[in-house]
Design brief:
alpha/beta, 8 helices, 2 domains, single chain, Rossmann fold, 4-stranded parallel β-sheet
Length: 208
């Protein structure tokens, strides 16, 4: 083409950033102009808002993503909500191609009796709270002494660990001040993790 190929990427989490990185590095005989959109003012998606703050190795991925964004050949536009601020028609008018990398930010419903009762919460909501996600309230109702965590994947272990750790041990991390205060005042003494199958089928990684 006689002008750069214009590409819009919706979602600036790891998938969006790495897609932009691969496309800018790919061998070709024409230029590519990439705009990376996100509904939040800051990029990095679930690496920023979905990983427990005491995971420095995983949080280190942010440094790699930052290097990509810091090169200057990818334009980031934050605070843009697709569907309201920007429509598909808008994008098609100005871009040759569109990539959607919006991720999985909602809890899947647990279809068992009682899952909607008071005191029952989704893991994604709790993770969003302790990671300081801008869409969730600053307070969390930590009033129970015993907590059941349903599932035994990485997120389940993150949740169990955050509930059972001493809040002061998290001061060396990027824990938000309101989360530290909430966990410091938490009455939780016992956390029970429930898995459907046996220890050989657990879904958490060796690090967890």
């Amino acid at each position: 083409p006689d002008r750069p190929l214009r590409l819009a990427i919706i979602g600036a989490g790891p998938a969006g950033v790495y897609t932009a990185d691969l496309l800018t590095k790919a061998e070709r005989d024409f230029e590519v102009s990439i705009d990376l959109f996100d509904r939040y003012p800051a990029p990095y998606g679930l690496i920023r808002y979905g990983v427990a703050p005491d995971h420095p190795r995983i949080k280190g991925i942010v440094k790699a993503l930052h290097k990509v964004m810091d090169r200057g050949d990818i334009r980031f536009l934050g605070g843009v909500d697709f569907g309201t601020d920007l429509t598909l028609e808008d994008l098609r008018e100005h871009y040759d191609a569109i990539v959607f990398s919006t991720g999985a930010i909602k809890d899947a419903a647990l279809s068992i009796p009682g899952s909607d009762l008071e005191g029952s919460f989704g893991g994604a909501d709790f993770v969003s709270w302790y990671d300081g996600h801008p869409d969730v309230p600053r307070e969390w109702p930590l009033t129970a002494r015993e907590v059941a965590v349903i599932g035994n994947g990485n997120v389940a272990l993150d949740v169990a660990r955050m509930l059972s750790k001493h809040a002061d041990d998290l001061l060396t991390t990027e824990i938000p001040e309101n989360v530290y205060a909430g966990l410091k005042a938490s009455p939780v003494t016992d956390v029970h993790v429930f898995g459907r199958r046996g220890p050989a089928q657990v879904k958490f990684t060796p690090l967890e």
